[in-house]
Amino acid sequence: MRGSRVLAVGVGYLGLVAAALFFLLPLLWIVLTSLKTPEQLFQYPPRWWPERPTLENYAYLFSKMPFLRYSFNSLKVAGLSTLGSVASCSLAAYAFARLRFAGRTPLFYLLLATLMIPYQVTMIPVFILMRSLGWVDTYYPLIVPWFLGGAFGTFLLRQFFLTIPAELDDAAKIDGCSAFGIYRRIYLPLAGPALTALAIFVFMFQWNDLLTPVIYLSDPDKFTLTLGLAFFKGTVVTRWNLIMAGAVISAVPILILYVAAQRYFVQGVALTGLKG
Amino acid sequence: MKTIEVRRSDVQRAGPLVVSPAGRRRLRDTLEGYAFLLPALLGLALFWLGPVVASILISFTNWGSGQRVSWLGLENYRGLFTSPLFWKVFRNTWYYTLVSVPAGLLLSLCLALLANQKLRGIGIFRAVYFFPSIISMTAVALMWSFLFNPDLGFIDYAIRRVFHVPGPDWVNSISWAMPALIFVGVWKWAGYNMVIFLAGLQGIDRSLQEAAAIDGANSWQRFQHVTWPGLTPTTLFVLIIMLIGSFQVFEQTYVMTEGGPAYATLTMSYYIYLDAFQYFHMGQAAALAYVLFAVVCVVTALQFSASRRWVFYQ
Q1: What is the C-alpha end-to-end distance of chain A, expressed in Å?
Q2: What is the C-alpha to C-alpha distance for residues A179 and A267, in angstroms, rounded to an integer?
Q3: Which of B62, B146, B239, B242 to mutate to test the interface with A (most CBs of A within 10 A)?
Q4: Which of A97, A213, B228, B276 has its CA 20 to 30 A from that of B86?
């Protein structure tokens, strides 16, 4: 019995390590490539560890290429979108969770139904709308929609708000608190974990998004990091050590966020999975 | 309390034609509800419902192609269905979906079963599997462009070393470009779906497992008769989000192949982007988007109706 337990643990770790290598080795290869000089890049047979690792690729991207600006642009777009999404989705989520009004249930289902609509269906009319507002080649099309709700965030927060005891509302109402007061003084402070999960999701989505920046941005000064990176690949075709350094730069902030707030990432995914 | 008293007397003075206090409160509640929903409803109208209607109208016009917008009726759709390129794109879309969804489902389920073991350090393994799903597809696709590079990439180097044959020219090869894109999609999203499966696994009643073990069921029998039935609702959810996602593949294509070589990786979602934003055929692109929408709806509906036969709700 004891022997079979040891064997099971051994086989378990073997599988875990094999799977981990499947994900880690490509990433490691990329990081090591970003530390290589052009000579080391073209070396045959390729070597894993560069003899003298160098940070010159990173220095080049930040000093000779506008990667600092791209990063700042991405930070601006992702940060403002996060703010807008948390504010507008929490308002809607509170209404759907706690207020009683005509049309609440049908509207909620209508909102959820938008999760089924492919982005490709709405992107053409939305582009025409943005163009008529004169917003092409500005950040408005990337940011403004996030200030106007969204099914994913509203659903996530509503599910959380429903777990807050409604007796708190009644007590606050007797004390003369308005609905907005209850939302601001009771629901927002208590929903910290859910708000954080949503904020992380929106930030990550916007930091990583490529399609919307591709459609709307054409001035290279305004490029986000992903768009700059994709554009950069076309201009320096074979300088893979530089391109890989750029990819690492775009991933590092997300890695830091992940290490700092890992449980919120997992909670966010799990919360969306629970409705299944 | 005071404000309510005042209102009651107001109503009494105004006479019986005015709404009752209860009706008045309902009206007030409704206004209040909609005040909270104002940004969300504006977004719903401007970015979802309006565009869904506008898109179908645009698909009946030559928007973008002519000097003046004119009504074409079903001409855009007829043009699509009689174009050989459309059918190639349609087949490519299914190729991507029918390979990437089962492969991704199987891989993420296996990862979840591995990562659900009660072993020391399991959190680190879960974090490693999950990591590719949170970095941008742009970075991941660039990374794999390099790994798949026939001259400098590690994959063809390994193939040469191990099998002593030259590796395929991946993204420049008509037959290997699509498998490369599919691989990248599966590699990136496996950890994300694993987390959903893990949540599903943790929702399965442990006492059922223990009862089955006491009854002498081996681990495969326990999976087949306890774990899998309990996991079917989660599987349905993962299957549907993977299907919807697979029909919208864009970033890998944009970074790695741009639909080539010779349209080998041109899928509907990428074709819509090209048509609308590179060639400015908004009308035709909107028609194509509606065809995609119809495909997504039909496939999802089929999944739900088929699910009655294999999904087990406790």
Answers
A1: 38
A2: 28
A3: B146
A4: A213
Closest chain A residue to the Cα of B146, Cα to Cα: A240
- What value does the mean pLDDT of chain A take? 90
Residues in a beta bridge with B297: none
pLDDT, one tens digit per residue, over B123-152 is: 999 999 999 999 999 999 999 999 998 888
Q: Which B residues 104-123 touch A at CB under 8 Å?
A: 110-111, 114-115, 117, 119, 122
- The whole-angstrom separation of Cα A118 and Cα B131 is 25
DSSP state letters, B198-223? HHHHHTS-HHHHHHHHHTT--HHHHI
Task: List B209's β-bridge partners, or say none.
Answer: none
Confidence band for B208, pLDDT divided at 50, 70 and 90: confident
> In whole angstroms, what is the distance from residue B210 CA to residue A160 CA?
32
CATH code for the domain defined by A59-273: 1.10.3720.10
Neighboring chain B residues of A100 at a CB cutoff of 8 Å: 29, 33
**Reported confidence tier of residue B204, pLDDT bands at 50, 70, 90:** confident
User: Which has the closest alpha carbon to A84: B40, B31, B48?
Assistant: B40
Domain B84-310 is classified in which CATH homologous superfamily?
A: MetI-like (1.10.3720.10)
Q: Do B36 and A183 touch (CB under 8 A)?
A: yes
Helix (H, G, I), strand (E, B) or coil at A52: coil
Backbone angles phi, psi at A68, to 5 degrees: -65, -45
Q: Which of A240, A250, A275 sits opposite B152 (nearest CB)?
A: A240
Residues B48, B42: Cα–Cα separation, whole Å: 10
Q: Which residues of B touch A122 (CB under 8 A)?
A: 47-48, 51-52, 55
Q: Per-residue confidence at B72, pLDDT binned at 50, 70, 90?
A: confident
CB A72 within 8 A of CB A224: no
Q: What predicted TM-score, i.e. pTM, was given to this entire model?
A: 0.90
CB B114 within 8 A of CB A12: yes
Which is nearest to B314 in space by CA: B205, B202, B214, B221? B205
Percent helix / strand / coil, chain A, rounded to 5: 75, 0, 25
pLDDT at residue B4 greater than cutoff 60: no
Give residue B9's pLDDT.
45
For residue A123, the chain B residues in CB contact (below 8 A) are: 51, 272, 276, 289
- Annotated domain spans of chain B: 2-58, 84-310
Give the start-to-end residue ranges of the domains of chain A: 2-57, 59-273
Chain A positions touching B268 (Cβ under 8 A) are 120
